[in-house]
Amino acid sequence: MAKRALPNPAPPPPPPSRRSPFVSASTRTTRTTSMGLFNRRTNQGDEGEARQPFSWKLPRQASSLAPEDVYTNADLDPTTDPAQRTWGYGTWFSFWVAASLDPAFWQTGASLIPLGLSVGNAIGIVVLGNCVIAVPIVLNGMIGAKLRIPFPVAARASMGYYLSYFAVVSRAFLSLIWFGVETYNGGLAMTQFLRAIWPSYSTIPNSLPESAGISTRDMTSYFLFWLVQLPFFFLNPNQLRWAFLLKTVVVPVTMLATMGALVHSAGGGGPLFDQPNSVTGKGFSQAWLIGFAALQGNWATLSVNSSDFTRYSKTSRAQWSQALAIPLSALFVTICGILAASASIPVYGLAIEDAMWSPFDIMDRWNSRAATAFAALAWMLAGVAANITANSISSANDLVSMCPRYINLTRGQIITAVLGGWAVAPWKILASSGTFLTFVSGYAIFLGPFAGLLTSDYFLVKRTAYHVPELYDPRGIYRYSAGVNWRAAATLVLTITPNLPGLINAINPDVYIGNIAWWYAPGFITGYLPAILVYWGLNVAFPHHATLLAEAVSAEDVDLSVPPTFDDYGTKSSGEHNKDVYEMGSVSVHA
């Protein structure tokens, strides 16, 4: 479809209007940033800097793309400033090393081999599962890398301005849970560190009741590790690349040293490598699917909100290095964990079923206090980096989108630390029967469709043509019907419902659901792929013309000082000062 010529009269003066009278991004000279908890610094061009006193209510940002009556802040805005886009190929590789090299991934073999799988099959599942989950992570990451917007904003394009909050709240809920669990693991490393310095720390008497679910020593370690994380929450995400790079060096060395020392003492890889599959037929298939689902579930959340990080990429191509970094880093740590556990059997005279899968159990056997202290420091660094990458920043972005008047990125991370660290009480969760963790892991049946909606909408329906300023307007083209895109809502119902019986059975095995359990077993993938197809099909049959642009419009393309006009499709146009192709047309513009 040919592009229509836009009228060329002199632009009318800005109205007293719905949009703030700011010039386009390329000519802005002022910017207010909302980073910081107690103070806010305002850049005032050549006039220097002024520091404002603390206020619970954040200042309305001059860089905002939202209408004047819609509150937002700079942490939710596109990262248009090149100084914020510092993540290159090396940063992305170290990001995934930082995310993968933690105690949870070290123990991956403990969740696969006891299912009856051989070491070879366990490693195969690790490789395949991480290669599969890398696909939606990279594809959805393109939204942030190209348009520089975070996940809560990107979700509005497919789900509608208000329905997107369902995905945002779901993501925030999971972040709080896993933040607490990851902090608990960090507390175990803190225990080893303090034990190495003061051996009497191991024998601190317990003064907490049994109902607390945690001892005095472990609560002390948990609290101290929780405190250690706090300074990192005051850093802008683009500054965290140095922490990722440090972890990329320190933690792999610690893992190799731990594994190498055990393998050397055992004189080989240990008995687990000679152990064949103990399940066959249907049991083997079920074990494989459960393991496959577990590996995808590890990164299901990041497949949804990868744009929270990719918006800091130097180029849109840099984030593609994730496709290699994800499976390689996961494979490395899993092999180290399996080798160490297998070698621990002959070294410590254990039965096969008592193999030491936790690095902290291994460290507890060490006599060298120096080795224990340095290894514990490395594992604490691993825990901090993993918690920031997978949980705190993601949750903070979600909280900012829900309450931008009072929450910025720093405050959002502090809230995550308080709620996830204490309200969740992870020691209670981990000490329970595991039913709640089963539910949280099974939440991938929601995350798969969320990720599928993002992929399908950006690549198949909108053909990468988003209008970024409109994503910040609750009355804009992405409002759909009352803020809800019924196509997305229908997709969620049609793709989540078939997985619900499987989730119920996983929580309560006494509930018989028949063969439909096989649909639930692969987890994330049976939500992601169907959602892509269902959503695309609904949009082909019932297109929403107003959101189908001829070309993407970024935050840098639009002069917000020009009042909008509308065409027959409800399309906005702001005259000659805007990008000359940002009009919407019919479906044929994608032909």
From TrEMBL:
Residues 8-18 have a biased composition (Pro residues). The chain crosses the membrane at residues 112-139, 160-181, 219-235, 242-263, 283-302, 323-351, 371-393, 436-456, 477-497, 517-538. The keyword Transmembrane helix applies. Keywords: Membrane, Transmembrane, Transmembrane helix. Residues 19-34 have a biased composition (Low complexity). It holds the Pfam family Transp_cyt_pur. It is a multi-pass membrane protein. GO terms for molecular function: nucleobase transmembrane transporter activity. Residues 1-58 are annotated as: Disordered. GO terms for cellular component: plasma membrane. The keyword Transmembrane helix applies. It comes from the Eukaryota. It is found in: Membrane. Gene3D superfamilies: Hydantoin permease. Belongs to the purine-cytosine permease (2.A.39) family. This is Uncharacterized protein.
